[in-house]
Amino acid sequence: MSETPQQPEQPETHPADEAPASSQPEQPPLPKSLTFRITPVSLLAVVAVLVCATPLAWGAYPWGLLVYLVPLGLAWWILRTRTTVSPERIAVRTALGSNRFDWDQVASLRLDEKRWLKAVLSSGQEVTLPAVRVRDLPRLSVMSGGRLPNPEAQE
Question: Which domains does the chain have, with CATH numbers?
Fold first, then answer.
């Protein structure tokens, strides 16, 4: 009692059912914004500093408690520092302030000593873009709407 294997049925296709082939693939819609932050894992280092500061803080009580301001300041810096990029503008937020500017004001980008990018504005001012690295240039190029060239684009 053996059955002969059957071919699976193929659905019938009609030329009218097929989607017209376009010469260019559709681009997915851009997100409203991209946010570049310092990794929250670095808060583990803050916890380590907090634990190591505890004997010093309680050994010199009550003024030694001021040592806890160091890990508190580090945590504030990690959580607050970010760069938010939208198709219209760039918003930079640091621990001490913030700055916003439009893409039209960006003349070029420059690599910082800390391997973060700096935006060189048409006025000559340089603004550090915290947490934005060279590897993020393709995403910046897409969000800029072509104002910045994509370094990964093949010619």
Answer: 34-143 (2.30.29.30)
